[in-house]
Amino acid sequence: MSRIGAEDHSTFSPVGPKSDFTTTAWWILFAVAAFVCVVVIALAVGAVVARRRATVHGGEAKGIVLTFGVVIPALVLAATFALSIVGIAKVAKPSRPAAITIDVVGHQWWWEVRYPDSGAVTANEIHVPVGTPVELRLTSADVIHSFWVPAVMPKLDLIPGHTNDTWLTVDDAGTYRGQCAEYCGVQHAHMAFSVVAQPEADFRSWLQGQSSPARTPTTAAQKKGYDVFTSGSCATCHTVRGTPADGQVGPDLTHLATRAKLAAETIPNDRGHLGGWIANSQQIKPGNKMPPQPLSPRDLTAVIAYLESLE
Ligand code: HEC
Ligand SMILES: [Cu+2]
What we know:
With about 300 residues, this protein is an alpha+beta fold. It is built from seven helices and twelve strands.
C-alpha cells in the first residue's frame, strides 16, 4: 500500500517495524489497563455490597486480598515487563544491517540532514529507500531536540555533544510528517520535517541529484541573483555547494528548489512564500535565526530567480 500525504502523523497508522511494535504494545497495555480498571471497580462495588450483607469472614477476606492484591498484580506486572524486554530488543536493532547512514543535526529551529557516504546535504526533508533499514545518527548544534516521526518510529533525543545512534525502516512508500518533540525555544512548534520513503531507484536518483554541486545560473536574472547571494550577507550563513557561499548558520541551499516546503515545514516552497521569507522571515516565523534581509526589489527578484533555479 502506498500512502502519500504529509498529514500522515499518527502513531495509530504504523508503517515500519519500530512503530508496528510500539503500537501493538500500546494496544496490549491499554487492554490490560482497561481490564484491570474494570475488575477493580467491580471489586470495590462488590466490597460495598458484601460489607452491607456482612457475608465475608476473616479467612475469606485474607484469601481475596492475597489473590487480587498480590498474586494477580504480580502476574500482570511480570507479563507487561516481559513485553517491554521483548520490545527493547526488537526496537534496538534492525533485522538486517542498515544500507545507508544519515546524520541529522537539530538546530533552533530546523533540521540539518547529511548523507555522509555521498556528500549530499539538505534540510527538513529526509529521503529514504522504502523497506530498507537506515541508520540514523542524531545530534544537536544547540539545545536538546527530539526526533519524532509518529507513523515510523518513537521519539529519540538529539543532544549537544553526543550522538544517538538509531535506525528506521519505512515499509510503505509515502511522505510522513515528523516533529520536534522536546520544547526547544520560541519556534519549537515550527520545527517539523518529513520522511519521504521512495522506491530504491527513485531514492538513488534523488541522492545523486542532492550530492552534485549547484547548477550554474543561466539567465541574466539568475546571474544577478547569484552575485547578490554570493557577495551579500546570504553567503555568510548559507552554503551553496560549488560556489563561494559556504556559511554554516542556516540550511544548505544547494538544491533548495527540490524541497516541498521551507523553514521546517512552515510555508510552501513557492515564489511568493520564498520572497516573503527572504524579505522578512521574522513575520513568518518570529524569533527564528535569520534576520530580515533589506534587499532592493530588483535584487530580491534576482535572488528568488537564482534560488528557484537550484534544482
Ligand atoms: C544570520 C544568518 C542568515 C543570513 C544572513 C541569511 N540567512 Fe537564510 N536562514 C538562516 C537560518 C538560521 C534559516 C533557518 C530558519 C528556520 O527555519 O528556523 C534560514 C533559512 C533560509 C531559507 C529557507 C531554507 C529551507 O530549506 O527551509 C532560505 C530560502 C534562506 N534562508 C535564504 C536566504 C537568503 C536569500 C539570504 C540573503 C538575502 C539569507 N537567507 C540570509 C540564516 C540566515
Ligand atoms: Cu523542539
